[in-house]
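Notes to self after the Tuesday call (sharing in case useful).
The group wants a holo model before anyone commits to mutagenesis around the pocket. I volunteered. Ligand is 5'-O-[(L-methionyl)-sulphamoyl]adenosine. Logging inputs and output together so the record is complete.
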Amino acid sequence: MSERAAIYLTTPIYYVNDVPHIGHAYTTLAVDMLARFHRLDGRPVKFLTGTDEHGQKVEKAAAQRGLAPLAFCDEVSQAFRDLCPAMNYSNDDFIRTTEARHVHACQALWQRLVEKDQIYLGAYKGWYSVRDETYFAEDELVDGKAPTGAPVEWVEEPSYFFRLSQWGDRLLQWYEDNPECVAPRSRRNEVISFVKRGLQDLSVSRTTFRWGIPVPGDPAHVMYVWVDALTNYLSAVGYPDESTDAYQLFWPASLHMVGKDILRFHAIIWPAMLMAADLPPPQRVFAHGWWTNEGKKISKSLGNTIDPLKLIDTYGLDPVRYFLLREVPFGDDGDFSHAQMVRRINADLANDLGNLAQRSLSMIAKNCGGVVPTPGPFTATDQALLESAYGVLGTMREHLAQQSFHRALEAVWDVISAANRYVDEQAPWSLRKTDPPRMATVLYVLAEVVRCAAVLVQPVMPDSATKLLRQLGLDAPQQFDCLSAAAALVPATPLPAPQGVFPRWVEPATPATS
Ligand code: MSP
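Result:
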């Protein structure tokens, strides 16, 4: 990501024609983990999410419900807002495209593009799909429908156009000069090939419906919903006032996290618009993959959408957060299955981390008078384990700079596994009789590794990490600068009674069939 201290992370803003599902929860969760990680790493962070509320689809959906568009948006936007505490997102801001600050920013950006002769009035004719909010050329239609299967209608309307066609070379230069600006690599290559095939000017206004931001000076037009939507990233840092602290600190954005379906808007149209307005483009756009449900594509019509609130109810919040970020190499598509979820809960959480903490802390409670044991000299083995626990942060930083959440978590689990092997090899339960001072040292080393693990899992499982830290007599949150011997557990500190933090999943008994 960026070399500067401050980090600005964004999610897409979600359409209000749908209730939140696993796809929305996933994008925001990924950003939440990054935001929490960087804050604990001592960097100023702005984490933005929100809702995308204009467009013909919303106008129609509101009419069907007999509601004014804004009343309809208020209701659905609230469902996305409510998802934030339910998923324990730490967003600093929630933007709605119907807010005055956003309307103001959009109109100012438009004006600036007009002044720079980047927007002109023309006419648009084409096959329009309301569902995709996109025009299709005749040869793109499949059996008279959009490639997505959505119905299309012939639309002829006067329209303003953005001179996107002028920006191909500048974009190609930008991708070349900034190898990290679009990721993952395969998607970056797709974007580059698309731009190399040549870009056309983009229709950026509509006259066929009213629910949008009026074009300055020509209110018969409203802005094309994607121009409106993309500008949210600027509105939230106070644009057009470039002198604000927020703008100075956070623009350009460090990372726009998006799903693979909306990469072109973010990696082509958005940077081109910014360059045309003489504003710096984002530092990075990352496109993640899509979830399927037990091997099947998720769709409203199949009725197999996954409700994040139900998942939390069934498996618990932190296990869901862990699973989503650990299960699939970030960037690839992934499959949600009950069996895999249970495997992660039982293997990674209950067995690996849960048992390590539970075994170590119970032995300390029973054999060390319920206080942090006083260690003797460390052996080379002790030292190596401690060093690896302190060193994971560096590895996590590298992986998270690439949005490799699964690898970052794997690195923590490597240390957890090493600690579990260490318990078996050192057998502190035998040392209790043969060498009590050595037992105290081994249990101290284990408690210290559990401390590091708890500190490192804070961004992905904040509640469970807090519980673990409290059992070690520590407050939460713990900043990452505590990951060193200098901040190690203090011998003789009293500890509360240990409690399991990661229960095993036990399949509910199914009634016997006769
Ligand atoms: N409103 C636009 C974004 C504008 S950003 C300036 C939009 N909204 S959306 O609600 O349709 O989708 C938001 C995000 O959800 C996208 O990043 C999309 O990839 C993601 N997902 C929707 N379904 C998904 C899955 N099944 N799996 C993973 N993510 C998916 O697009």
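Two things stood out.
Residues 392 and 412 are 6 Å apart (CA to CA).
Residues 12-15, 23-24, 26-27, 52, 229-230, 232, 258-259, 261-262, 290-291, 298 surround 5'-O-[(L-methionyl)-sulphamoyl]adenosine (CB under 6 Å).
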